[in-house]
Design goal:
The chain is 32% helix and 25% strand. The protein is built from six helices and ten strands. It has a domain at 14-122 and 148-164 and 186-203: Rossmann fold (3-Layer(aba) Sandwich), CATH 3.40.50.170. It has helices at residues 25-35, 54-61, 77-89, 107-112, 133-139, 175-198; strands spanning 14-20, 41-48, 65-68, 95-98, 117-121, 144-151, 161-168, 202-205, 208-211, 214-215. Strand 2 (41-48), helix 2 and strand 3 (65-68) form a beta-alpha-beta unit. A seven-stranded mixed beta sheet has the order 3-2-1-4-5-6-7, with helices on one face. It is globular and about 50 Å long. The longest helix has 24 residues, at 175-198. With 217 residues, it is α/β, with parallel strands linked by helices. The structure holds glycinamide ribonucleotide. Residues 20, 22-26, 55, 99-100, 120-122, 147, 183, 186 line the site of glycinamide ribonucleotide. The site of glycinamide ribonucleotide has 15 residues, from helix 1, strand 5 and helix 6.
Length: 217
């Protein structure tokens, strides 16, 4: 059943399922803020499509259920996304947070979790959707770069923006040095967005992100 927008009982703690494919440093930031009480929420499961993802270890160390659903075991994107939908829904999430989940999700998956699906992307969207964002920003001579947390809609890397974090691009920046600074900013803005959602201040309405009753645009 599709959950109505922002209909979860905020008296209860927001249940978060985090989807990852790799290191999981953003996952860690969210876990840490939940544990510190800065976010009134609980990460109830972490699911990776890659067995070796270090984020699964982070989850287990935090006492969170950690599962792998390997996309290579499915004959199509649709079949994988159907299985993923069932698995995620089993945890009754109020919020599904994509944190370095490197798969394009099918329209059916996005529809199923509409209004409760968030992503972090390593650029100042609408600049640099897709991959290799740091390399492309340096190659273009961009003076500013950063990260964006947004609600996920049918348009890839283009859903309504919730919050962005900016960093200056230095003349001698390498892809590595720039990505390190962007990660630092990600670890601040993703927990902030999750906190707003979990405290009932943030919702998606008619494809517009609303914070404290005002559209974020
Ligand atoms: C983050 O930089 C995130 O913005 C990016 O993957 C990295 C995951 O890092 N996401 C995307 O590129 C999605 N298009 P982490 O595993 O250390 O959180």
């Amino acid at each position: 059943m599709v959950q109505a927008l922002s209909s979860y009982n905020i008296e209860a703690r927001c249940r978060i399922v985090v989807l990852i494919s790799g290191n999981g440093s953003n996952l860690q930031a969210i876990i840490d803020h939940c544990n510190d009480g800065e976010i009134s929420a609980e990460v109830v499961a972490v699911i990776s499509n890659v067995q070796s993802a270090f984020g699964l270890t982070r989850a287990r160390l935090a006492g969170i259920e950690a599962l792998c659903l390997n996309h290579q075991g499915f004959i199509s994107r649709t079949a994988f996304d159907e299985a993923l939908t069932t698995l995620v829904e089993d945890f009754r999430p109020d919020l599904v947070a994509l944190a370095g989940f490197m798969r394009i999700l099918s329209p059916a998956f996005v529809n199923q979790f509409a209004g409760r699906l968030m992503n972090i992307h390593p650029s100042l969207l609408p600049h640099y959707p897709g991959l290799d964002t740091h390399r492309r920003a340096i190659a273009d001579g961009a003076r500013e770069h950063g990260a964006t947390v947004h609600f996920v809609t049918q348009d890839l890397d283009a859903g309504p923006v919730i919050i962005q974090g900016r960093v200056k691009v230095c003349e001698n920046d390498s892809e590595h040095s720039l990505s390190t600074r962007v990660h630092e900013i990600e670890h601040r803005i993703y927990p902030q967005a999750v906190h707003w959602f979990a405290s009932g201040r943030l919702r998606l309405e008619d494809d517009v992100a609303i914070l404290d009753g005002e559209p974020l645009a």
